[in-house]
Input
Amino acid sequence: MADFVDTTVKDIDARLRDLKGEVEKLEAARAALVGGRRGPGRPRGGSAETAAPRRPGRPRGRRGGNTRANQALELVRSRPGITIPQIAEALKIEPNYLYRVMPKLVADGQVTREGQGWRPTGS
Output
């Protein structure tokens, strides 16, 4: 009876090793498909003590406050009928980014689209 239990435990351990390898492969494939996001929280392994020292100057990370959206809105207010390529040129950014920003301003009721141009609401 003891031999049966030992053999069964070894079989289970071997199967678990195989499954762990399969899980790792699936997680790597999933990460490659969704851009490497692991979920909420910081990645494992890093800490403030081991991180590189911060350089003075521009703060790290996002500025917050919809900065590009606010800049685009100010341009639309100052130049009604302005197009996305013109906004991009004025802001020195790629136009494709504005194709995400402008619909959010429409949804917030701050701008409307007229043909290729954009106008502030109520103007």
Summary: Residues 1-35 form one domain. The longest helix spans residues 2-34. The chain has a mean pLDDT of 81. The first strand starts at residue 82 and ends at 83.
